[in-house]
């Protein structure tokens, strides 16, 4: 990986360092560089380097935009009105191994993972000679770095590897990612691990994060930093993909307990207010530090869902009941919008306090997802009453649903409702592609001709879809092998056409 993860990378962060008064670590324009090869020799420098790792995660080429967008864009719940060319190759299934978005996700995903590995390594080297107060700080920094690496590698594995479980079928022996268990030095020959090994590394990182939070006796308690609740939430998500229902449910419950979230709003105005600004979402456990003053402007996730012409698909819009409070975001249209060329106003990324979607943040780990994980896990464990209780917390966003008696009683119908509820609730959170793949859904994708929607490809077995490793990485010649992506691509192009 000469191009991305083997070069010495300078970590950049902002000179003010960490804030203790609630301001995010990205709210200044003054940068400070730390040399990763020899500069992480003090607790202060480790703190600075950790901020730099958040910056890599936050960057628009990774979780700030592209790595989330790719989980929704090529699915049945997204519509593109063709007025701009952004993400068009991904949406229309005409991507190649030179795709700019795939290249950027790979690059910044590995920058995040590699930087986190260096923070962990430096913290371990400093630990024995540190004071008690410094050990507390180092434990917290290691916890966050492990969680950052675990989350980065989960995104990379989902995007560049086969779904690990597909309705019980095990694909853990398929190729996954190059695991960053230690910093990689230049010119090192490397190879891809299996999907199963990649997931094992992800779980180990997230559990190590929890162990270090425990040793620190705290987390920061701020939405823009990974803490105990969000880390438990990421473990719940990971175990859901692994179809380990007991662990998925248990970690989801723990995330909600730590966050102190026992209910969700079902009032339309209160629901809209969750997305007023970067710190307004009381149902979230981790959000990126995108703000009024620090954002990616034209490259922002919010721009993609507004002036760059992506919006909820007519199929998704039709899935909301009339009295569903979430319609207040789904129905949002710009004054230039027409039925044939809809222009969305950002939805969850709208940043209503400013009215500028470019300033909206991405909420990464959220309470509604945890309730839906509990519901799905309990269905699979044949605990249908418990499943309905967890599902009801989210489903009551539709005011016509008042009790578990309003939810399906039979297992198959209840699971079908949960699938639809995940589409309704998790739109714009980058989950849909992996849900469709793990459920082995045959879907219609590449919608056109709004409002009388036609799908270009129908009945596509999306569980077979894998994205290509960027050709620049393959051509670097350091051992990364390519996916058999053209096979899944040709199925889409030739056999899935309507």
Describe the structure.
The chain has helices at residues 43-58, 66-69, 88-91, 100-127, 132-160, 195-216, 228-241, 245-259, 268-273, 301-304, 314-318, 327-330, 367-380, 384-395, 411-426, 432-439, 471-475, 485-495, and strands at residues 11-14, 31-34, 78-80, 165-166, 169-170, 284-287, 310-312, 363-366, 442-448, 454-461. The chain is mostly helical and 498 residues long. The strands form five sheets. A two-stranded antiparallel sheet has the order 1-2. Strands 3-7 form a two-stranded antiparallel sheet. A hairpin with a 5-residue loop joins strand 9 (442-448) and strand 10 (454-461). It is globular. The model is unreliable at 1-32 and 493-498 (pLDDT under 50).
Task: Please describe the topology of this protein.
Layout: E1 11-14, E2 31-34, H1 43-58, H2 66-69, E3 78-80, H3 88-91, H4 100-127, H5 132-160, E4 165-166, E5 169-170, H6 195-216, H7 228-241, H8 245-259, H9 268-273, E6 284-287, H10 301-304, E7 310-312, H11 314-318, H12 327-330, E8 363-366, H13 367-380, H14 384-395, H15 411-426, H16 432-439, E9 442-448, E10 454-461, H17 471-475, H18 485-495
Antiparallel strand pairs: 1-2, 3-7, 4-5, 6-8, 9-10
Helix content: 40-55%
The rough form would be described as: globular
Query: Beta-sheet strand percentage?
Result: 5-15%
Distance between the termini: 39 Å
Strand order of the largest sheet: 1-2
Structural class: mainly alpha
Biggest β-sheet, characterized?
A: 2 strands, antiparallel
Let me know the average pLDDT: 90
String of helices and strands: EEHHEHHHEEHHHHEHEHHEHHHHEEHH
Rg from Cα: 22 Å
Number of strands: 10
């Amino acid at each position: 990986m000469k191009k991305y993860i083997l070069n010495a990378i300078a970590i950049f962060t902002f000179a003010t360092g960490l804030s203790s008064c609630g301001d995010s670590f990205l709210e200044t324009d003054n940068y400070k560089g730390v040399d990763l090869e020899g500069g992480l020799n003090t607790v202060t420098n480790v703190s600075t380097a950790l901020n730099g790792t958040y910056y890599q995660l936050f960057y628009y080429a990774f979780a700030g935009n592209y790595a989330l967008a790719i989980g929704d864009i090529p699915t049945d719940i997204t519509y593109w009105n063709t007025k701009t060319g952004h993400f068009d190759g991904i949406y229309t299934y005409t991507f190649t191994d030179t795709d700019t978005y795939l290249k950027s996700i790979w690059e910044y995903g590995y920058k995040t993972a590699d930087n986190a590995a260096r923070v962990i390594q430096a913290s371990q080297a400093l630990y024995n000679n540190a004071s008690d107060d410094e050990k507390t700080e180092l434990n917290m920094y290691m916890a966050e770095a492990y969680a950052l690496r675990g989350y980065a590698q989960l995104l990379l594995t989902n995007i560049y590897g086969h779904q690990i479980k597909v309705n019980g079928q095990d694909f853990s022996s398929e190729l996954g990612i190059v695991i960053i268990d230690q910093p990689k030095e230049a010119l090192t020959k490397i190879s891809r691990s299996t999907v199963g090994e990649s997931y094992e590394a992800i779980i180990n990182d997230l559990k190590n994060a929890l162990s270090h939070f425990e040793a620190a006796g705290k987390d920061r308690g701020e939405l823009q930093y990974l803490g105990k609740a969000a880390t438990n939430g990421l473990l719940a998500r990971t175990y859901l993909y692994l179809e380990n229902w007991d662990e998925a449910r248990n970690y989801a419950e723990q995330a909600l307990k730590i966050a102190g979230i026992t209910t969700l709003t079902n009032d339309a105005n209160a629901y809209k207010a969750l997305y007023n600004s970067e710190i307004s979402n009381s149902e979230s456990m981790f959000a990126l530090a995108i703000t009024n003053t620090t954002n990616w402007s034209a490259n922002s996730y919010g721009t993609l869902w507004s002036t760059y012409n992506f919006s909820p698909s007519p199929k998704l819009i039709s899935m909301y009941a009339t009295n569903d409070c979430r319609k207040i975001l789904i129905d949002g249209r710009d004054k230039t919008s027409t039925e044939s060329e809809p222009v969305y106003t950002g939805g969850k990324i709208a940043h209503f306090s400013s009215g500028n979607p470019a300033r909206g943040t991405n909420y990464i780990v959220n309470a509604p997802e945890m309730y839906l994980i509990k519901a799905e896990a309990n269905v699979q464990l044949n605990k249908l009453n418990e499943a309905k209780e967890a599902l009801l917390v989210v489903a009551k966003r539709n005011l016509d649903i008042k009790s578990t008696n309003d939810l399906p009683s039979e297992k198959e119908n209840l699971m079908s409702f949960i699938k639809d509820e995940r589409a309704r609730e998790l739109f714009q959170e980058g989950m849909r592609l992996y849900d469709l793949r793990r459920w082995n859904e045959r879907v219609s994708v590449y919608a056109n001709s709004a409002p009388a929607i036609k799908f270009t490809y129908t009945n596509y077995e999306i569980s077979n879809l894998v994205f290509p490793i960027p050709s620049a990485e393959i051509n670097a010649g350091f051992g990364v092998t390519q996916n058999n992506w053209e096979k899944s691509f040709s199925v889409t192009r030739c056999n899935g056409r309507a």
